[in-house]
Amino acid sequence: MVNVNHLDLLERDVVDDSVRLATLLRRVVLLGAHTSYEPLRTWALRELKGYMESNPGTQLPSYRVIPAVLRADLRSGYMTRSVTISVLDLPAKMQEFMQQGLLVPDGVGKIDSLLSTASTDGGVKLSPAGAAEMTRVMTYERRSTGTIVEDVYWTVHESALHDILDQVRTRLAEFVAELRIVMPPGVQNPTEKQVETAFQSIYITLGDHSPVSIHAPVAYAGDHAQATVGTVPIPETSDVALTKPIGRWPGLRRLR
To answer: Under the phi-then-psi rule, with left for phi > 0, alpha for psi from -120 to 50, and beta for the rest, what region is 178?
Structure first.
């Protein structure tokens, strides 16, 4: 049984935007532990710690694949310019990892901190792991033109990052609402079966841990993963013979 009513606290705070999302997810971790329903706890921990940190190679929910513009800083002589580029401008071996938009595996706390770096026009500049290797290969491929590729990065509007956090909070609200529906009147603490029923009804993707039923599906396939709908596998390996493999996505970093 639950000694502290984490469900009551979660129901109270999930509609309060002043309560940090990380706080809500920690309560979900405790609720999952007290009710012995591991998939709920697993999902909450992945949202808190990041999907690569929690379980490298796991699948991302489709709400964590966001639209972004791929750009490069090019230098010719004394002039440097930032241009929008296509995935097809990248080295062939690297294109497959960049085709589906920006994959965001980081924990909600890190995403929240990235929002504080947005420019006055709402843009956030992010670099994928392996960007340095991309620039070296691209510069080599353009050696005949004298063009130096200084950087490759994503630019994304802050609203897309806000949407990830909002998707998680909304799913938490749906979970609480569904759990209240399946719980008999007057019952304070849910059973494992009730938690399972509520959790599965709100379409949260957990890779192999629960049914895949995410709306607005995204399909993705790489050399080392089978295409799925509703989740996007994070590439684990790369066939590119570079100093550091680019196929891993340990997270995003803000460009300074």
So the answer is: alpha
One-letter amino acid of 72: A
pTM for the whole structure: 0.72
Q: What is the pLDDT of residues 40-97, one digit of tens each?
A: 999 999 999 998 765 656 678 888 888 888 999 999 888 999 899 888 888 887 777 6
Long-range contacts of 72-76 (CB under 8 A, 24+ apart): 72/135, 72/138, 72/149, 72/150, 72/151, 72/152, 72/153, 73/149, 73/150, 73/151, 74/147, 74/148, 74/149, 74/150, 75/147, 75/148, 75/150, 76/145, 76/146, 76/147, 76/148
Cα gap 84→69, rounded to integer Å:
7
Domain boundaries defined on the chain: 6-62+162-209, 63-160
Residue 12 has pLDDT above 70, yes or no: yes
Q: What is the pLDDT of residues 155-206, one digit of tens each?
A: 999 999 999 999 999 999 999 999 999 999 888 889 999 999 999 877 655 4
Q: Which residues contact 15 (CB under 8 A, 6 or more apart)?
A: 173
> With 60 as the cut, is the pLDDT of residue 105 above it?
yes
Answer yes or no: is pLDDT of 253 > 90.
no
